[in-house]
Amino acid sequence: MLLELAALFIEWEDVKKDGSSSPRWTDGQELNFIRGKIIRKKEEVEQFAKENKKKISLQEVPWEMPYGYMVKADEIKENALISLEKYVSDENYKYILRHAYRLNNDEQYETGILCVFNKMKTFVQDIEHERLVKLKAHESAERFLKEIRECREKLDEMLGWDE
Helix (H, G, I), strand (E, B), or coil: what is residue 71? Predict the structure, then answer.
């Protein structure tokens, strides 16, 4: 039990320092979730010590964090702008923009063009509204650039030619 409690404190400190990798929660939510587990585990340890007439000194429970708290918020925003620049300057993305009109809606859906356009629109809105949790997904541009490249390949197949 003590090792589990110690591991939870370490996890809390790590998230406090580096942020979480959760694509759904703010770092504040994640820290409070871990805090809740610390409280429950600490109560277990204290109950065990009381039942076995042992005296134990435990670390204080970390403070509750604001719901919207994000570690390295400025870095997340900066990385998002860098990723946006990579996306809009990517040759595959430019190619898709130039040739998407050649396909009907069903073909655009089938090639993934609509998905790429919707993700780009949402990403720009996330930047405008500083939705940091969502922006963390773009800290590295590589995953979306791969999706754009695959979309371009499907577009080439659909059109039956290379530019």
Answer: coil
Decide: pTM greater than 0.90: no
Where does the chain show beta strands of DSSP type E?
none
**Ordered mean pLDDT values, 10 residues apiece, the chain (163 residues):** 93 96 92 97 92 86 95 95 98 96 93 96 97 92 96 92 58
d(CA 63, CA 31): 9
Tell me if 136 sits within 8 A of 76, measured CB to CB: yes
Say how far apart CA 100 and CA 114 lie, in whole Å.
9
**CB 139, CB 76: distance < 8 Å:** yes
Beta carbons of 24 and 71 less than 8 angstroms apart: no
- C-alpha dist (Å) from residue 107 to 94, 110, 113, 145: 18, 5, 8, 21
Task: Say whether 160 sits in a helix, a strand or coil.
Answer: coil
DSSP string over 84-116 = HHHHHH-HHHHHHHHHGGGS-HHHHHHHTHHHH
* Distance between CA atoms of residues 60 and 127, nearest Å: 37
What angle is formed at CA 75 by the lines to CA 71 and CA 76, rounded to 5 degrees? Answer: 75
